[in-house]
Design brief:
- The chain has 110 residues and is mostly helical.
- The protein contains 5 helices and no strands.
- The longest helix has 18 residues, at 3-20.
- The chain is globular.
């Protein structure tokens, strides 16, 4: 499995856990909503992160920020960071954080 595939797997696990914060039934409803309204399957999310971000922000409005922060905290924990401090969370650009992390290669640490 190449580094990119590893990152996508970890990202998808993080998104799944972050959405799980809403409860299992709600998580499944969100995946169904993404599929039906945005043609975005669960498996496509790591490859279409901008679409996922836009769909979540459109769906949850201001509440999307809390969900994005939760997903980022899970993602950072999975790659080995013990603490994540998001300064000015109202300015969080979820897709930018994801791409910066992916491009850093720090998720490849053992």
């Amino acid at each position: 499995m190449n580094n990119s595939m590893i990152f996508e797997k970890v990202l998808l696990e993080s998104i799944d856990e972050g959405l799980g914060w809403l409860g299992e039934n709600t998580k499944q409803a969100v995946y169904l909503h993404l599929k039906n309204n945005y043609s975005l399957s669960k498996e496509d999310i790591p490859y279409r992160i901008e679409n996922f971000t836009a769909a979540i922000e459109n769906t949850f409005q201001k509440g999307a920020l809390l969900l994005e922060i939760k997903i980022m905290k899970v993602l950072f924990a999975k790659i080995g960071y013990r603490y994540i401090n998001i300064e000015n969370p109202e300015n969080l650009q979820f897709a930018s954080y994801v791409y910066a992390l992916k491009n850093s290669g720090s998720y490849c640490r053992s």
